[in-house]
Amino acid sequence: MGAYMRYPTAGTNIPPAFVDIDLPPCATDGSLPNFEEGMGGLMHSHTNSACNEGTPIKVPSPTDVQTFVNTLLRESMQYTGSYHNAYSLVATSGGNYMLMYNKTTPPGSINYNEWANLQANYKKAFGNLLNDKENITQSDIEKVFTKFMKELVNRLGIEIYRVTPSSIIKIEYDPTSPNSVKETTYP
Questions:
Q1: Distance CA 89, CA 68 (A)
Q2: Tell me, what DSSP letter sits at residue 164?
Q3: CA distance 115 to 29
């Protein structure tokens, strides 16, 4: 399940609209609506059911990152004049994670070959985690994900937030922090 936020044309005094997306189970790349104009925000869930007999990973996927970079940032800038209005929120039973961007220049797109490489490295990193540890915590998953974002996606300005009912916590890979994840809490 999901929804996207569609920004209106600048200067029209029309509020943004939310459009529900009823994705099929195990939806993957290409499952978004073909109509991208004004799509600046995306919210969707990752379920506890595993597709293809895998283990569900409860953080954004490489496709989520690619959609954020290639579509949501572009449309947010075009319709609102700022990259800061773009967001992608993934809701899971392990936590809710939001991608945002803090720069004024674009981070460059993610083409198919880079996406395929990210996909392979994501599966490898999480596969290694699943094989190396018996009791995996969401903290372990966050460590792998933040490292993946910093070292492999490597786009300055993309920020990751853990969203809770009472706070927003910026998380980033930092090998000197506890569990290698630095947390900055915002009220």
A1: 10
A2: -
A3: 10
| Tokens, residue 66 | 């690619």
pTM of the model: 0.89
CA distance 124 to 111: 20
Number of helices and strands in the chain (H, E): 4, 8
Which helix (H) or strand (E) segment holds residue 126: the answer is helix 112-132
With a CB cutoff of 8 Å and minimum separation 6, the contacts of 31 are: 23, 24
**What's the pLDDT band for 74 if we cut at 50, 70, 90?**
very high
Q: Which amino acid is at 51?
A: C
Structure confidence by residue, pLDDT tens digits, 81-111 = 999 999 999 999 899 999 999 999 999 999 9
Closest CA to 153 of 72, 60, 39: 60
Please name every residue paired with 171 in a beta bridge, in sequence order, or none if there are none.
Answer: 160, 183
Query: Tokens 């600048």 appear where?
Result: 10
CA distances from 146 to 32, 65, 173 (A): 25, 12, 5
- Distance between CA atoms of residues 11 and 64, nearest Å: 29
Structure tokens at 151: 């070292």
* Host H or E run for residue 122: helix 112-132
